[in-house]
Amino acid sequence: MSGFPVSGILRVRMKAKIIITPKKAVLDPQGKTVQNALEHMGHAGVTGVHVGKYLEIDLAPGTDKAAATQALDDAARRFLSNPVIEDYRLEIVD
Amino acid sequence: MRFAILQFPASNCDQDCLHAVRVAGAQGRFVWHKETSLGDVDAVVVPGGFSYGDYLRCGAIARFSPVMQAVKRFADDGGLVLGICNGFQILCEAGLLPGALIRNRDLRFHCEQVFLKTVNPATPFTSALPKDRPSLMPIAHGEGCYFADAETLAGLQSRGQILWQYCDASGATTESANPNGSLLNIAGIANERFNVAGLMPHPDRAAESVLGSEDGLRVFEGMIAALGARRAVA
Fold first, then answer.
1. Cα separation of B226 and B228, whole Å?
2. Which position among A10, B97, B125, B129 has the lowest Cβ density within 10 Å, counted as fewest Cβ atoms?
3. Does domain A14-93 have CATH number 3.30.1280.10?
4. Does the model's ipTM exceed the 0.90 cut?
5. What are the extents of the domains in chain A?
6. What is the pTM of this model?
């Protein structure tokens, strides 16, 4: 088995990548605990850790990028993140 | 008085709430999350549990269920809505209450009895609670740390929307009496109209003396009394 496409047209796969992080003002005990553990492991110079979420959303090939960006931005703001406690970054890659 | 008790996949305090409502002297029935109408009811309880497995965020998915659209309309019309534990999280996610509930400060699930100071006794949810001592109710949650931005907190304080704060046996709202890191020791709040309230402690699990406390029953009794007064006026 080869990992390379043998023939035919390469189908473009689109993905949306959404990174959700706790807002700076919000207590992030998980990040703090991970930071402490990194320090115990000897990692010097770590001044902060913020634990969030990463969502990868598969989109049908040929999806209109601008429309998808708008729709997913709306979903990220209304549902995938909670603006009271979280920030998000959305990126669409093809 | 007729109470609707919502049921989501993985609600686990629905039976407790129904029982508590009946002990308090009202009628209750379950309303499944796929229902688009609450039917003819006087109050709604959003019970505790782990709706939709707490996936994404606690309450984030439940909030979009058909029944929550009905609850929103019911609340907009002035109906009484009480959210307990996961129900509180759902009401915050739905925007019916301000703020959010995040992981406990120590990252641990807390299952213990707590003392609660009634900060504002002049609401349907708090009027029947003891006035001379803190209430005693259990908590059981991993994400009960109340957070809101400074402006929201100031608004809650000035309008009397903070209904309950974690306190010690003497009623002092100390840092050590705060089980989860909630800002201002907040255990429960109401909306600006005082017809929607949510709290992390479980009044449903403190509704009979055999459970160690009857203080929780007073929350339901207060709601029933308020509904009775409304009916008398109408």
1. 5
2. A10
3. yes
4. no
5. 14-93
6. 0.92
